[in-house]
Amino acid sequence: MRAGSPRLLREINDRAAIEALLRNGPLTRSELEGLIGLSKPATAQLLTRLEDADTVVRNGLRGGGRGPRAQLWSVNGALAHIAAVDLTPETVDIAIADISGAVLTEYKAPMPVKHGVLEAFVSAVGKACGQAGLSADQLLHVVVGCPGAVNPANGELAYAPHLPGWSNFDMPGQLREQLATSVSVENDVNLVALEEMVAGRATKVSDFVVIWPADLVGAAVVVNGSLLRGASGGAGEIDGLMIPDRAAADTDTDRSGGTFGELLSNTSICKLARAHGLAARNGHGAVRKALAAGPAGREFMADLAKRIATGVASVVAVLDPELILLSGDIAQAGGTTLNDLVAAELRQLVVPRTPIQLALVTGKPVRSGALHSALAFAREEVFGLPAATTAPFRGPVVAGSPR
């Protein structure tokens, strides 16, 4: 414990206790005492102080063993609420949570193709909030993950031709105005990288890249533990990267190739699958069929790995990261088979022997990353906890709220 005024010391200890409760969930007084290193009387006084301030609440009893059951304490989740949103061209997927991280409700809705997207989005957030007994203006912060990247100079969404209704206006600013609360907009793969840093394979890695090898190819670059966004927000936007098509099968395409995104589009992957005698409706379906076919699907998997590795090679050659993580439906469908084939191809293309692994976080990684980003913001605002204690990098620029 460092020297300082009694008030400063109390503030330091209070923050340490709040952080311990946020990280570990409900704790008994003795458990909290052990985590923050205070005496029994000091911890009891701290809990009384925080309870009087409505910062912590009693949360049941912990039984077991002999003797009386112990009182559990937790952070008062009702102090603030946040929204985490995964926005795609087809849908909006929303989670509403309190500041403790408890998800109160989930809501998913279709999105219009082009016209009325802003209205549909605001309506969906309003319905999600209604399910949680809130209104949108009661949210402390909203984080939206979407394909593309927001230009920090004007708030416009770039690198997102597949989201035409969201172009040519200040996206965070408009959402802030419509929702009457603080809003951040972040690239979806960047949020996957955040989730991998919090709860995935990159918890102990300082320099890594997440690759999303699917329709709308994307990447997130983390250098020295911080997300690299670039001058215009476009770092990692590799969908338009020109690469040759090294697949062995004849698909009647220009052998000089095309963009990374074109070669990994659902249409292109299904065409490659047909060249190998496999019929599928989309890319991850083709991968699943190839795996189910056993040796008969191996050549298709090898060709797909060549396309993925060719694009990844450019990233590795420039950045030489500690780790490459493959994420998204196609990577997960291909599993270790596709991962190992990509790794073998990459070793033939570049000198750095960068390890390649499957991303650990599956299910809803974009929304989960948005949730962690929103919680980091809220906990800094409410408790004064540095964002670094709850998330590895600071959240994106917040419209109308200087950071």
UniProtKB/TrEMBL annotation:
SUPFAM superfamilies, alphabetized: Actin-like ATPase domain, Winged helix' DNA-binding domain
Pfam family, any one: ROK
Origin superkingdom: Bacteria
Matches recorded under InterPro entries: ATPase_NBD, ROK, WH-like_DNA-bd_sf, WH_DNA-bd_sf
Stated family: Belongs to the ROK (NagC/XylR) family.
This protein's name: ROK family transcriptional regulator
Organism (species): Lentzea sokolovensis
